[in-house]
């Protein structure tokens, strides 16, 4: 296979205009599958969450999951879509090695939601991403290719199929071509998927875990000569499962397409695999057009016809738009743009909001969640919300700091205890002996020892060098295992020195 020429990003954009299309698949968090009653719990033993319907056995009849329909409508409304008064399912036919009935029940020309939009801001510029459709379908099973070096079917010794995922409810959200982004195209793609994920989480219809595949993106990209109004041939990079990878996939495909076009070649309409380790894509299969799937109406399912009353009732359940909420809370909390960027990147805003409601200040809540607890979550390899500390506990620890029962250093030990399940903050302070030493007796003894051990430092302080007091404070803190009340200790040091 000939080595592909990859044109540098800036040179590619000097000659070509990129057009993108994003297809985002969202696994819904319903208790049962799209067309049967099998559970949808992630990580079950292979082929234990299956039944005749999702295994495609003869005579098994599907039934639509009402909760999935409700979630689809709420997603459509949140994306400013029109909701169909009448829609139906179709069979999408082609070879599915991991779909036992060998077709996917999806929606084709009659989706439940269509003609919407989402505004995305990138580096101070707003891009409107038009939504073509959001339709309901079912997920496929999962193939594991054993042997070989790549984990793909090529070169594998054999393949195993787990049908637990087959039939899990999916919403596929398809954009119209995104034009005019130019050099910001990779960032626009990343920002759109990030904002869509935040919206999905706010709606409560999916956990939107990209690392577990419950939300994944297909990145379509084409190039056209600068100033041309004709779209080029597209490639589709499948199942990209991180925000960083969405950006990298767009950037790489721009360079790859430009290399082909510069050499007079033709871009093949195909699917591509994205490689996390290299940031490159490789060929999958030639991409079919819609007519190749031989869609036809699903004969075993009745049409879905949501009443206008139900649609409006669901509209009333929509949460505040996450982007608008972010702007509002930043103003209310007084966070700088940099502080809010860090909060947003950490996924900490809901936790900070709950901590403020529990009774602490926004800055204190931000300090603990973004500075201390985020590090612990990263070290443990878990999401911030799963670190083992609740917003109410963070507020309680900060209240103890404010009351001078403990200081920030000791508070970190309290968080250690909370994560270890040692009880309430107060119980942990008592068990570990963490309370600040504020009684004058022990403090004076520690100060006397520190001054006697460092007479030259004491002379410097008497001479007006107040910066030198830090050495005495350090000795006092060491003697009291960091539990001295710093404010009271400083007062006593100055008293001792006649200042």
TrEMBL record:
Catalytic activity entry: L-glutamyl-tRNA(Gln) + L-glutamine + ATP + H2O = L-glutaminyl-tRNA(Gln) + L-glutamate + ADP + phosphate + H(+); L-aspartyl-tRNA(Asn) + L-glutamine + ATP + H2O = L-asparaginyl-tRNA(Asn) + L-glutamate + ADP + phosphate + 2 H(+)
One GO term (biological process): glutaminyl-tRNAGln biosynthesis via transamidation
Domain Asn/Gln amidotransferase: 350-497
Catalytic activity, EC: 6.3.5.-
Source organism, top-level taxon: Bacteria
Keyword Transferase: yes
First-tier enzyme category under EC: ligase
Name of the protein in its database record: Aspartyl/glutamyl-tRNA(Asn/Gln) amidotransferase subunit B
Organism for this UniProt entry: Nocardioides jejuensis
Organism phylogeny: Bacteria, Bacillati, Actinomycetota, Actinomycetes, Propionibacteriales
């Amino acid at each position: 296979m000939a080595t592909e020429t990859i044109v540098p990003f800036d040179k590619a954009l000097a000659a070509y205009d990129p057009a993108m299309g994003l297809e985002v698949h969202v696994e819904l968090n319903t208790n049962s599958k799209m067309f049967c009653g099998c559970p949808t719990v992630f990580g079950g033993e292979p082929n234990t969450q299956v039944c005749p319907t999702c295994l495609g056995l003869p005579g098994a009849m599907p039934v639509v999951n009402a909760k999935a329909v409700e979630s689809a409508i709420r997603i459509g409304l949140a994306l400013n879509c029109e909701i169909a008064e009448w829609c139906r399912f179709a069979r999408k036919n082609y070879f599915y090695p991991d779909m036992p009935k060998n077709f996917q029940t999806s929606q084709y020309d009659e989706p439940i939601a269509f003609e919407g939009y989402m505004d995305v801001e990138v580096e101070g510029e707003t891009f409107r991403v038009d939504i073509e459709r959001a339709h309901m379908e079912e997920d496929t099973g999962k193939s594991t290719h054993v042997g070989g070096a790549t984990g793909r079917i090529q070169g594998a010794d054999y393949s195993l199929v787990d049908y637990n995922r087959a039939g899990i409810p999916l919403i596929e959200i398809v954009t119209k071509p995104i034009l005019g982004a130019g050099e910001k195209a990779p960032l626009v793609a990343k920002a759109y998927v990030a904002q869509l994920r935040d919206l999905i989480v706010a709606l409560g219809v999916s956990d939107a875990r990209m690392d577990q595949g419950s939300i994944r993106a297909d990145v379509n990209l084409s190039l056209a000569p600068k100033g041309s109004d004709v779209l080029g041939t597209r490639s589709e990079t499948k199942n990209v499962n991180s925000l960083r990878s969405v950006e990298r996939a767009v950037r790489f495909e721009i360079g790859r397409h430009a290399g082909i076009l510069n050499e007079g070649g033709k871009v093949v309409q195909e699917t591509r695999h994205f490689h996390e380790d290299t940031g490159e894509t490789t060929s999958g299969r030639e991409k079919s057009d819609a007519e190749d799937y031989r869609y036809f109406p699903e004969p075993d399912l009745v049409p879905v016809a949501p009443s206008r009353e139900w649609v409006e009732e669901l509209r009333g359940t929509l949460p505040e738009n996450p982007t608008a909420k972010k702007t509002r809370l930043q103003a209310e909390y007084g966070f700088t743009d940099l502080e809010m960027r860090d909060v947003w990147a950490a996924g900490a805003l809901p936790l900070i909001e709950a901590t403020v409601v529990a009774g602490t200040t926004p800055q204190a809540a931000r300090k603990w969640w973004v500075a201390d607890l985020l590090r612990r979550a990263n070290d443990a390899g878990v999401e911030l919300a799963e670190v083992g500390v609740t917003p109410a506990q963070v507020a309680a620890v900060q209240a103890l700091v404010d009351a001078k029962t403990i200081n920030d250093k000791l508070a970190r030990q309290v968080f250690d205890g909370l994560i270890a399940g040692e009880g309430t903050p107060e119980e942990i302070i008592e068990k570990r002996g963490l309370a600040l030493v504020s009684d004058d007796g022990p403090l004076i003894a520690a100060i006397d020892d520190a001054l006697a051990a460092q007479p030259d430092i004491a002379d410097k302080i008497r001479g007006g060098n107040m910066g030198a007091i830090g050495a005495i404070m350090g000795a006092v803190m060491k003697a009291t295992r960091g539990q001295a009340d710093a404010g009271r200790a400083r007062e006593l040091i100055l008293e001792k020195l006649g200042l």
